[in-house]
Amino acid sequence: MSSPTEQENPAEPAPASLTPGERSAPSREEPLVAAASRPIGGPLGEHAAVGRHWFWTPQRVGLAMAVLALMLCWFGKASCIQQYTDDSGQNQLDWRAGRPYVAMCYSDIVPLYSAERLNQDGTFPYKTSWVDNAGTPSAQVRYMEYPVLTGLFQWVNAKLTAGWTAISSAGWLPGALPVAIYFNITAFWLAAAWLVTVWAVGRTANRRPWDMALAAISPLVLVHAFTNFDTLATAFAATGLLAWARRKPVLAGVLLGLGAATKLYPLFFLGPLLILCVRAGKFREWAKTAGTTVVVWLAVNLPIALSLNAGWREFFRLNAQRGMDPDSLYNVISYFTGWAGFDGPLQPGQTPTWLNAVSGVLFLLCCAGIAYVGLTAPRRPRLAQLCFLVVAAFLVTNKVWSPQYSLWLVPLAVLAIPRWRLLLGWMLVDALVWVPRMFYYLGTDHKGLPEDWFLGFVVVRDLAVVGLCALVVREIYRPDKDKVRFDGVDDPAGGVLDRARDVFVIKPRRTRQPVPQ
């Protein structure tokens, strides 16, 4: 069934740095960009002096666009850190009358400041505990619910908030409610992480540096950059891919390991890397990256796991016991069919065994299908293509799809399928799911939306992501349709895989045609 073969494109030295004339020009190739460029002179001319400006490089333009998008995101969330003076003369956070949902400014950062006991002196993540629903049969002991690096990130920001508050009390800094200061400090670091993400995408894209603008101005960034802490993970994931592209497997492992200690999804990149390295005979490089990833993850986690085991296990316990998310495919099926087969309503501490099994098996089946695609394609797929498929498969099959998780897909989609109109359309649809979600949480008693309207938008979002996956698979089997591989380019993010020979492929069996009589 399998045999060593030679790849169609023989091994060649990596191309030298691209000249300005070899760069992709979106205003020539993308109708949307061409139309948008008309107010400033139209598409790039054939004799334009490209790459000559002393300051405004594609990287700096992209980062400036990202700064603008992050500013707009902050203004969108700022309504949720407004304060008012109550009847007793105390300043309070103004979340009256469903403000987080009506203004659509909700961010997990704000309620977690007190929910995770970060506002109290002498607390430490994974050590400090509290009891939810105390005095009831459903009472539970709780700890910090995030992976180690994300938990420590929140704790450090809380300490910075305490320091800022102390200095502002002395009149040296402007003052505000501690939770507002905490949000702003956290948002600053999250914005820096997204800028790193955009920078890494631009560097990895190589001859298509302007594609980073898709990540910089993504509608998903406008809505979700400060919804949770996910830009930390995207920064580690994107820089990990960049390190691999620069043929630094150990550094890639360090960054992916740190990313996995922030959110687990960067670990999924090791699967596509394994498939492609097996196909190209580069298993040693994969082993370096995978081994370093595991060592770094253990180095971050073991000190907490050994000394504060109960708190460290909280993240895994909650994920195992968590029911289906309102945004998940399982909730859509359960609502529209009335079927309660996904374990139904859960009691506190009860694990949705059937739901966990179904989501896990579906994801593994998707991974097996992606591995088959990677080993049977006529030309070895690009790394970004398989990484996008794996992360998208996880989100679609997972029981939880928190809205900010869609940020994980943005850098991968830009590198995998840089089709501007298509990606901006998907990102706009995905970002707009936030509107019915907020009004669904507002409740119909407060003029909110019924659940079926919200779930209808979820279905459209899921179909859009599945459609992107189908396009990626089509371009894998039809590499001549792949925009990245224009003019003989192989895989800008491939690193040691770029222009390497195949040593192992699977040739699908062909049905024998009947011999005409």
UniProtKB/TrEMBL annotation:
Region of interest: Disordered: 1-33
GO terms for cellular component: plasma membrane
Ranges that cross the membrane: 179-201, 213-244, 250-278, 290-308, 353-377, 422-441, 453-473
Recorded topology in the membrane: Multi-pass membrane protein
Primary localization class, coarse: membrane
GO terms of molecular function: hexosyltransferase activity
Cited Pfam families: GT87 (PF09594)
Keywords: Cell membrane, Membrane, Transferase, Transmembrane, Transmembrane helix
Annotated localization: Cell membrane
Family (UniProt): Belongs to the glycosyltransferase 87 family.
Protein name listed in UniProt: DUF2029 domain-containing protein
Protein's organism: Amycolatopsis acidicola
